[in-house]
Design a protein that fits this description.
Length: 478
């Protein structure tokens, strides 16, 4: 019993990772909460916020009214004969307002003042002025409006769709940053363990070389045995140099992605694979939505193409326009008596007044191949997106199968390695007894512990690999 207790104390001394970890959030939690600092995530968030502004002002997609004010002032070349008065002055206002239904409303009004000769003043040729009032109301309509094909407004639907695409892109960028940082974090844990194991082995080699040097001087060991140890030590030192560079690179990758300075992380506990923590930073997304971000993006693109097609067909279709107008030509009056022409009779009992009805049909789009070109591009894009969607599903299914194979292998390796370690624990106990009895040197006992440590490090690395593959698999569609 005493031997076993001493062994457990020794194991905990060598492997503090076995002890429960308490205290502040670990590096992985800190990385997870800092993913918003990744440049790709920041750009995606900016696009999403811009899409919210676009959705708020979605009516600007079709609301482009025009208001035109004009004044046409005409003067004669010769002034003296015409009392320096203008020949005519016409002011007009034209207002045009488009509607989301492919309809355009037009209103126009004009007031004209025209110089003429007062007939009752001949032959004195005294000038007077006539006044013209004109007004028109017109309505135009595309002959292929979107409401013939769907009851959903494509402008409002398109704005919501673009917001959904931007949100999906933000979540995709966050997912990419999450996967990248988690892979770097797991690789960093494994590299740190391997570094620590190598450092201990090199320290053991140093002690062995010091002891063998004395034994060689007395002839207790050959020169070749000493050289073999030196060679093994140098090989481990080379590997250690490489691992230290890898550790610096991995820490740099984590800092670049999340802005977190990762320290010694090998002993930190891992977050459970199915923890509800993972979906937390994603925008309005459950885990089932996060698993299908790529497929959702394709579906969004397909719907966007359909809405764009509706609007393009509406805008490039023949149109009909109906205008109703009325004009009033007020009696000729002298310059100082223009107000007298605004009597009621001038509007109700004036044979010069008239009304008009205009119907026009714009067939320009029939002579343009634009619709055929747009239709061909639409079908090509739809087919391409269908192929991409099918490819995504096939790739994910193959990756799931590959992950299942790797996970099974890792589980098998871990199970076999645990049995080996359990057997090695018994060997360590036996070696301890031999050390206490003087049948085994301290150096030989340390070599046995070093082999045990290497096995346990491999077990921990296998366990981290298993966690990583299960973590990635957790985010794949079911």
């Amino acid at each position: 019993m005493k031997t076993r207790r001493a062994l457990l104390q020794l194991v905990f001394l060598f492997f503090p990772l076995l002890l429960p970890a308490d205290g502040p959030p670990g590096t992985l939690e800190t990385i997870f909460s800092s993913l918003g600092k990744d440049s790709a995530v920041i750009e995606a968030k900016k696009s999403y916020e811009n899409s919210l502004i676009e959705q708020k002002y979605r009516y600007l997609q079709w609301w482009s009214p025009s208001v035109i004010l004009s004044n046409d002032l005409v003067y004669p070349y010769k002034h003296d004969s015409f009392d320096d008065l203008a020949a005519s002055n016409t002011s007009s206002l034209v207002f045009s307002a488009p509607l989301p239904t492919g309809t355009r409303l037009e209103l126009s009004a004009a007031y004209g003042l025209n110089r003429d000769i007062l007939t009752d003043m001949l032959p004195l040729e005294k000038w007077g002025f006539s006044q013209d009032l004109q007004g028109k109301i017109g309505i135009g309509q595309s002959l292929n409006p979107w409401w013939l094909h769907t009851g959903r407004n494509p402008y409002s639907a398109g704005a919501s769709l673009r917001t959904g695409i931007a949100k999906n892109s933000y979540n995709a960028a966050l997912k990419t940053a999450l996967f990248s940082s988690v892979r770097s974090y797991i690789s960093l844990r494994k590299a740190e363990r391997s570094r620590d194991t190598l450092a201990e082995r090199i320290s053991l080699y140093d002690d062995m070389l010091a002891a063998y040097r004395q034994m060689r001087d007395t002839g207790g060991i050959s020169w070749r045995e000493s050289q073999d140890i030196r060679k093994n030590k140098w090989e481990d030192e080379e590997t250690l140099f490489s691992l230290e560079q890898d550790i610096n690179t991995l820490r740099g990758e984590i800092f670049k992605t999340a802005g977190v300075q990762a320290g010694n992380v090998a002993g930190e506990p891992l977050i459970p694979v199915d923890s509800p923590l993972w979906p937390a930073p994603f925008l309005n997304a459950q885990i089932k939505d996060i698993r299908r971000l790529e497929e959702t993006n394709i579906q969004f693109q397909k719907e966007g193409l359909r809405l764009e097609r509706l609007i393009a067909r509406q805008n490039n279709a023949p149109s009909v326009k109906v205008e109703f107008g009325s004009s009033f030509k007020l009696p000729l009056e002298e310059k100082d008596s223009l107000g007298d022409a605004w009597e009621k009779d001038s509007f109700t009992d004036n044979i010069l007044n008239n009304w008009s009805l205009t119907v026009s049909v714009d067939l320009s789009s029939l002579f343009s191949p634009l619709n055929r070109k747009n239709e061909a591009a639409y079908r090509l894009s739809q087919n391409t997106l269908d192929s991409l969607l099918e490819n995504i599903r096939e790739v994910k299914e193959k990756e799931r199968e590959q992950f299942a194979v790797i996970i099974n292998q890792l589980e098998d390796h871990i199970a076999r390695l645990k049995v080996i370690i359990q057997d090695e624990e018994q060997n360590i106990q036996d070696d301890k007894l031999m050390l206490d009895q003087g049948a085994l040197t301290e150096m030989e006992y340390r070599q046995s512990l070093m082999e045990y440590r290497s096995m346990y490090t491999l077990l921990e690395n296998f366990t981290d690999d298993l966690w990583l593959y299960r973590f990635v698999e957790y985010f794949y569609p079911e």
